[in-house]
Amino acid sequence: MTSVRGAEEDLVLPGARTGREPERSLRPGPRRLSPEQVASRQRDRLLDGVARTVAANGYTGARISDICRAAGVTRPVFYELFSGKEDAVLAAFRGGTETVVRAMQRAYEERGGAVAWPAAVRSGLEVLLTLLAQNPAFATMVVEIESVGPAGRRARSELLASFRRFFADAPPGPPEVARAELVDAVVGAVHAAVLRAVDEGRFTGTAGTTVSAGTAGTTGKARTTGAAGASGTPKAPRTPGTIEAVGAAEADGGLRGLLDVLVHVVVSPFDCPTDPKQPDGEAEEDGEAGEDSGRAPGRAGGGTAERRSGAPLDS
Fold first, then answer.
1. Is 1 a residue whose pLDDT tops 60?
2. Which has the closest alpha carbon to 134: 256, 230, 229?
3. How deeply is 167 buried, as exposed, middle or buried, from its count of CB atoms within 10 A (0-12, 13-18, 19+)?
4. pTM of the full structure
């Protein structure tokens, strides 16, 4: 079971909350907050407004007035904190992706890292999909960052480069293939698969995700009303763990199927088992069972072929 421990606030992505939540408002009158604390709160609300507005209207259709309205912050305050829309969108994207990568790193290390690389990779990818499913507005930003232009493409390249860290513990790949290029190709394939899933609505169409947080066994539901989730106010997401997709996403194989595909894409080019869920020794036990099943020795090769093809074995 994947578990990510850390402050709950660390796992809140842009767009997970609305800037107009009463507890986030700055009431008029004397304040106990410093000017820096006030600016920080206003910035966080604007980042939420950016993610929700971009998810609803796309980057090109997002207006600063709409962002400010979603955040409950005035236009002059916006320009005190950001130079313009591009600056704000890049800040939301970079802040959110840094949070996602940190959570993936914790899950990866807790699962064993180099000691159990395939399983650790699965845990990291599981957290990635969990956070995107819980935060559909931010998931849409992963696609929309491409529309920002050269600065957006640089931010995307920085994100993809940050995933190289998860391959430092990987077993050797094919000797005739340049390792750095292989890693970049694998990372690019995972990124493309996630973008396609976002485009297909597999995150925004998810009714919710059941998330087991370690031994706590808590369950978190992300309420959405489409890409923006404008009328639903998601609660701050709980620590992500095991994915159990429900609703529309479950009908098309769900996030569990996507997770299995991504793990296979990452693990298979390297010299290690492609099924990190299989306990050690299970394959050997299956082989021994086949020998004890009463089949003649001459059928051993045929039995192996049948097993690989998915055909039923002789009883």
1. no
2. 229
3. buried
4. 0.71
d(CA 119, CA 274): 10
Spatial distance between the Cα atoms of 60 and 85, rounded to a whole number of angstroms: 10
- 27 Cβ contact partners less than 8 Å away, ≥ 6 residues apart: none
| Residues 42, 26 contacting (CB under 8 angstroms) | yes
Q: How many CA within 13 A on the CB side of residue 224?
A: 32
Amino acid symbol at 144: E
d(CA 234, CA 132): 13
In tens, the pLDDT along 185-211 reads: 999 999 999 999 998 888 875 434 433
Of 256, 263, 255, the C-alpha closest to 119 is 263
Contacts of 109 (CB under 8 A, 6+ apart): 120
pLDDT tens digits, one per residue of 62-107: 999 999 999 999 999 999 999 999 999 999 999 999 999 999 999 9
The tally of CA atoms less than 13 A away on the side-chain side of residue 40 is 5
How many Cβ atoms from other residues are within 10 Å of residue 244's Cβ? 15
- The answer to whether the CB of 260 falls within 8 A of the CB of 266 is no
